[in-house]
Amino acid sequence: MLEARGPGAAAREVREETGLDPGRWWALEGVGIYFHPPTGQARVMAMFAAEAGAADRVTLSREHAASEFLGAAAAGRRFLWAAQRRGLESVQREVLRGGALARALEVTQMMKRTR
């Protein structure tokens, strides 16, 4: 079920919260696992990376007050959760280096089908 809902949910969240429609997407190798206190359950979360165009502008949803584009180190310092920092490290290692791994993880065509 995660495979069917994960990509669609990720694309929908990006559109709803930022107004962006990224041109490229990658499914990161790892998943996030966290404990959800209200339900008493451990949850598994697929992690995706998306590439926005240099001229794209963020349109904030009601859930956000501001946006800012930062380098990896500055962004990492603002993250609350260690899992978020690990996700950022995954993007650097798996996507930004390019090569065979980045090509294997690219799911752009799958994401286009979920629109």
Q: The biggest beta sheet, please? A: 2 strands, antiparallel
Shape: globular
Count of strand segments? 2
**Fraction in helix:** 40-55%
Spatial strand order of the main sheet: 1-2
Radius of gyration: 15 Å
CATH topology: Nucleoside Triphosphate Pyrophosphohydrolase
CATH class: Alpha Beta
Q: Which segments are poorly predicted (pLDDT under 50) over 5 or more consecutive residues?
A: none
Number of helices: 5
- Give the DSSP E fraction (strand runs of 2 or more residues): 15-25%
Whole-number average pLDDT? 88
SS-derived structural category:
alpha+beta
Fourth-tier CATH superfamily name: Nucleoside Triphosphate Pyrophosphohydrolase
The termini sit apart by: 17 Å
How many discrete structural domains?
A: 1
What is the architecture at the second tier of CATH?
Answer: Alpha-Beta Complex
The helix/strand series, from N terminus to C terminus, equals HEEHHHH
Task: Explain what the structure shows.
- InterPro entries: NUDIX_hydrolase-like_dom_sf.
- It comes from Eiseniibacteriota bacterium.
- This is NUDIX domain-containing protein.
- Strand 1 and strand 2 form a beta hairpin.
- The chain has one domain: Nucleoside Triphosphate Pyrophosphohydrolase.
- The mean pLDDT is 88.
- With 115 residues, the protein is of the alpha+beta class.
- It starts with a helix and ends with a helix.
- It has helices at residues 2-18, 72-78, 82-96, 99-105, 108-113; strands spanning 24-36, 41-51.
- Helix content is 45%, strand content 21%.
- It contains 5 helices and 2 strands; from the N terminus they run αββαααα.
- The longest helix has 17 residues, at 2-18.
